[in-house]
Amino acid sequence: MRLDLASRDSAFKQVTQQLRDRLLLVSGGQASHSSVPIQGSGTFAMEAALVTFTGKRDKVLVCINGIYGERIAKILAKSGINFEALRFPATLPIDVATIERMANLDEGFTHICFVHCETTTGIVNPVRSLVETGRRHGLVTIVDAMSSFGGLPIDVEVDGIDVLVSSGNKCIEAPAGVAFALISNRLLVGGVSHASSYCLDILDQWQNFEQHGEWRTTPPTHVVQAFNKALEELLEEGLVSRNRRYCRIRDKILSGMTALGFETVVPQDCQSPICLAFRSAEFVPDKPAFESYYDHLAANDVYIYAKLHDQTGTFRIGCIGQIEDSGIDKLIGITAEYFDISHSILAA
């Protein structure tokens, strides 16, 4: 972050190419996909993928079981792209059999889009089964892997994903500011962009990288360098080891919070190591109660996600990043103290 490189300089071009290559190494897509970074948050890349690869004659099946699936539907609606939303409870994974029936009933679908790890509750959706269903029906698959890429097992070639979208500031553990799409080469080569926006035309972005090795517009050069370094560290740690580290953090948080009387809402076999959603009718019955609890944690330099999810009555605690055991112990201790929970429970 301390080294200032000019965005058109050959040294920065090398950083960009290295970042793109490392994304393919992490994803397993070296032979099948291309990586296309784009400036902005993950939603920028998600919208770029949607408006580039879906057109006015297409119809998208959007599978929703949380806030970020709803956001995909909002993007499509604002872009004037035809879609149908199939909604499931936020506490359950997307049902593959239901998607199969829907695809059989309507042969007009051209694309299927869903979130891999829906962090509304931390639930993991069955990515491979959903992609297989889409491919059987000839659908282009667009997967939001914002919170899962680098932390959960996923292989874009083996899993058959056409477009995967993610961001550097989740499991890659880079600063926010750069997102990316991993796109099947068959969509890129000879492909046609439907984007009406210059900035969000991710096909044009890819073509510029391939032809000139440059970003079309000025990128956040320091963030790109930090992103590249974070990818280096992810590859050094290994995907299996990073997943194992996140799982251990999840289990420690889960053990501590459930001992205090909080409950989770996601089936155990669908619970990600990305974040946990907790609720308690006794301790956090409503939004004011949560806000008071959150403010107390923040006053003690402990931070969790700052919103209560109305539909499930849950609040979220993240499991990713450089979280140490001492930080988890502090969270559990302050929570117990705030709600005046017996120390005998903590010792049990």
From TrEMBL:
Task: Write down what this protein is called.
Answer: 2-aminoethylphosphonate--pyruvate transaminase
**Names of the cofactor(s):** pyridoxal 5'-phosphate
Gene encoding this polypeptide?
rtxA
Organism equals Rhizobium meliloti (Ensifer meliloti)
Question: According to its UniProt record, which protein family does this protein belong to?
Answer: Belongs to the class-V pyridoxal-phosphate-dependent aminotransferase family. PhnW subfamily.
Write out the function statement from the record.
Involved in phosphonate degradation.
Recorded hits in HAMAP family, A to Z, give: PhnW_aminotrans_5 (MF_01376)
Subunit info here reads:
Homodimer.
Residue numbers bearing the N6-(pyridoxal phosphate)lysine modification: K170
Q: What is the lineage of its organism?
A: Bacteria, Pseudomonadati, Pseudomonadota, Alphaproteobacteria, Hyphomicrobiales
Q: Which reaction does it catalyse?
A: (2-aminoethyl)phosphonate + pyruvate = phosphonoacetaldehyde + L-alanine
EC number(s) on record?
A: 2.6.1.37
Q: Which residues form the Aminotransferase class V domain?
A: 11-274
- Name the InterPro entries on file: Aminotrans_V_dom (IPR000192), NH2EtPonate_pyrv_transaminase (IPR012703), PyrdxlP-dep_Trfase (IPR015424), PyrdxlP-dep_Trfase_major (IPR015421), PyrdxlP-dep_Trfase_small (IPR015422), SP_NH2Trfase/AEP_transaminase (IPR024169)
Which positions in this protein are listed as binding substrate?
R316
One annotated GO molecular function is: 2-aminoethylphosphonate-pyruvate transaminase activity
Name the UniProt key words of this record, in alphabetical order: Aminotransferase, Pyridoxal phosphate, Pyruvate, Transferase
One GO term (biological process)? organic phosphonate catabolic process
